């Protein structure tokens, strides 16, 4: 049966090309006013202007008028850590009271507290908690997502996390990409023998992850004092042998060569980029690596925001993502990410919508399936509440502007 959505106030995000966008092209978020869209067998089959709508072809059809609403492609959130156990609001209170990283770590906080919680959780409990989060973000309009491991930090628990992601993949209506992030932090037992942990990742974790086909990508928290440039290179080269491409956490705390290494290793995406020199900006702008910015994490950590304007003006391919995680971005609502991209990083609404949809799809290598309104793509679309313009979404922050979400041609509200 065909599903026709008609009387759409404006249909946004039309794009049939598959090439990631750079510079001025980012602001080109094409639309049609007073539009319809037709969906069949989970996919977009056609769209057009209400003026040209042919009412005679309605055999075996369901027609839904969504007068006043806008339609846009679902968010493609290309950086999350949404499999985790417990929450860390106590750390937020410690930080408010002025405690530093070392003091919080001494009180049992930080990534290692999430690692303990994952260790103590069963695979079923982890899956159930993650599935609730996944359903929540789909309800906020996310139609494709990347999820990382990285709170396991042992062979057994990294595999546990990745198996949970695999189960989410098998049970979720939206496309999911899995990333192995064993190099997220050093577990306590390896604090004094860091090289032994890198050996464990390279010789045991990566082969085991590959053996079970649990990861599409490999990620490393590449930062001075955490995983060095040479550690990162070793881990990525080991993973590449098993077909896991890199996407890397770089330049979050310092500019010390992480970005250049990501580009040299052919990373799909270099993520964070809070600390960027002019050289870093021109390096990524002249590469094929996508610059994925995570403004809600910068907000939560009171860190400098990534230089989105400079990156766009230099011609970099910019995407934005939620970094949904319990420590530094405990929210996966992409409407907030779009708001902060506009207000704090001075992206225009069109640039932010593009970066949160098509560019995010490119950063997950899913642009042939999702990320824009195009014939043949999955019908994963957002229906907004009646709003005066798309810019109203980042403008009227903190509100949920989504009336319904269609995933593979089915209304979420009818599930
Ligand atoms: Zn992250």
Explain how this protein is built.
- The protein is of the alpha/beta class and 415 residues long.
- The protein has two domains: 2-74 and 371-414, Urease, subunit C, domain 1, CATH 2.30.40.10; 75-363, Alpha-Beta Barrel (TIM Barrel), CATH 3.20.20.140.
- The protein contains 15 helices and 16 strands.
- It has helices spanning 89-96, 101-106, 111-120, 123-139, 155-171, 194-211, 229-240, 258-264, 278-285, 295-300, 308-314, 334-343, 349-356, 358-363, 392-395, and strands at residues 2-12, 31-40, 43-49, 61-65, 70-73, 75-77, 142-148, 176-183, 217-220, 245-250, 269-272, 290-293, 318-320, 381-384, 402-407, 410-411.
- Strands 1, 2, 3, 4, 5, 14, 15 and 16 form an eight-stranded mixed β-sheet that branches. The protein has an eight-stranded parallel β-sheet with strand order 6-7-8-9-10-11-12-13.
- Helix 9 crosses helix 11 (308-314).
- The longest helix is centred in the middle third of the chain and has 18 residues, at 194-211.
- The mean pLDDT is 96.
- It binds zinc ion.
- Residues 79, 81, 249, 323, 325 line the site of zinc ion (ZN).
Stretches with pLDDT under 50, minimum 5 residues: none
Determine the mean pLDDT.
96
Distance between the termini: 17 Å
DSSP, total strands: 16
Count of domains? 2
Tell me the major beta sheet.
8 strands, mixed
The CATH topology of the largest domain is TIM Barrel
CATH superfamily of the largest domain: Metal-dependent hydrolases
CATH level-1 class of the largest domain: Alpha Beta
Portion of residues in helices? 25-40%
Bound molecules: zinc ion
The proportion of strand residues reads 15-25%
Q: What is the number of helical segments per DSSP (H or I, 4+ residues)?
A: 15
